[in-house]
Amino acid sequence: MNVDASVPPVRTIGPYTLVRRLGEGGMGMVYLANDASGRRVALKVMRPELATQADFQRRFQKEAEAARRVARFCTAPVLDAGVDNGQPYLVTEYVEGPDLAAVVEAQGPMTGANLEALAVGVATALVAIHQADVIHRDLKPSNILLSPLGPRVIDFGIAQLADTLATQSVIGTPAYMSPEHATGERVTAASDVFAWAGIIAYAGTGRSPFGVGGAPELLYRVVHNAPRLDGLDERLRPLVERALDKDPARRPTAQQLLDRLLGRERVTIETATEVVNDIWSPVEGPATEIAAGALRMRRQRKWWLAATAVLAAVAVAAVLLLVVLRPGGVFDQTKDGPLAQRAVSGADYRLDVQIDSLRRAGKTVTVKWSVKYEPADPAGVWRPGNVFGKSGNGPFQFSTDGVVLIDTANGRRHATANQNGCLCSPLYDKEWKKGETAFFYNTYVDVPETAVTVDVDIPTLGHFDSLPIEAP
């Protein structure tokens, strides 16, 4: 008898019978399954090691219950959740159709009514999600399925569970993360709106507005660079630009997106869903064929991406990976003042160094710090300085993991590096002006939640002792 390798030896989980594997993600496997009545559902089995984590078990039911409150308009609603033999699982409505990423990769950018329906449909889903006090946190093309009736958003709220995993560093997909998400700030509904804009730009142009590359490079572009939107439908571009504002307070809400897209006030999610159903044309080709076509294209690009990664690694090793952030940006010091500060003096300059904030998001901790450059003698001769320059050009040098976080409870050292590279702001060759302040950040992963105070060691600039970590 032939055994289907895509189905695990245990063919039932809870009251559900597994049919075949649909895919795999960071949280676990997804299967096509049948419930007791024979209805098809999508069943996500969480990774086995999660069962041993008390914090995950505690949050799983809470997040699942929140997700079940989300209305089914333009979403794949959560139907059930449970634990079978120590394995947590989540059940959602099964959506027949390929994901947006596969369609764009296999068939190219979307245009016309379908692009407009996608914009309205995903905005509708976000309104439904936010009305239930849920934040998606990982909205991306692969989390949007294109059903015969229109787009359906999946996996809402599940990303919040990922920060209980010790292996996770940045929770989300870098190309579609908001600036505040990328830098460890509090994630709100505005972050989902930012992701909506990135997805519509991707669907309408065939590329992410912040390009491709490793996580540190993408996160830096998200925080610093203007999005690339050339080629996007001019009717959608102004709204997409507003939703990609670096300041979350200036972005429209999901409801405002919906109102602007349909030219009405307070459009209901029921009405918006009907509009999507009316103007949507089903994507041509079975989902499996479209996914196979996208996979072939990914494999064809694999050698190029590998070569790019090698070149990027060489470039990163050749220059310093701490880049000065623009003054007045998202890394401004906190309103309550710095956690710690000190002055560092040289022959003709003085540096005022501050630790501005130290915040936790799960097991990820972000330090924001700043340096103000002043002449050593305010009355003396001022000469512009190249403080953090290329090798040999400045008095201070840093390695990619130069800024270290030290858990004062157990002495464990954390560096700003993981499998994707340094999670910090890269530093270019910059000549500072008198009195100018530059802002920096460094993000550390897998910092135990028992660590409530830490030391921050910045090479040549100082060691800051016993700083409290601000809880989320």
UniProtKB/TrEMBL annotation:
Entry annotated with the keyword RNA-binding: no
Annotated SMART domains: S_TKc
Keyword vocabulary terms for this entry: ATP-binding, Kinase, Membrane, Nucleotide-binding, Transferase, Transmembrane, Transmembrane helix
InterPro entries: Kinase-like_dom_sf, Prot_kinase_dom, Protein_kinase_ATP_BS, Ser/Thr_kinase_AS
SUPFAM superfamilies, sorted: Protein kinase-like (PK-like)
Source organism, top-level taxon: Bacteria
CDD domains the record matches: STKc_PknB_like
Gene3D superfamilies in UniProt: Phosphorylase Kinase, domain 1 (3.30.200.20), Transferase(Phosphotransferase) domain 1 (1.10.510.10)
Transmembrane segments: 303-325
Domain Protein kinase: 16-267
This protein's record includes keyword Metal-binding: no
Annotated ATP binding sites: K44
MF terms in GO: ATP binding; protein serine/threonine kinase activity
Family annotation (PANTHER family): MITOGEN-ACTIVATED PROTEIN KINASE KINASE KINASE 20-RELATED, SERINE_THREONINE-PROTEIN KINASE YBDM-RELATED
Entry protein name: Protein kinase domain-containing protein
Organism: Acrocarpospora phusangensis
Lineage per the UniProt record: Bacteria, Bacillati, Actinomycetota, Actinomycetes, Streptosporangiales
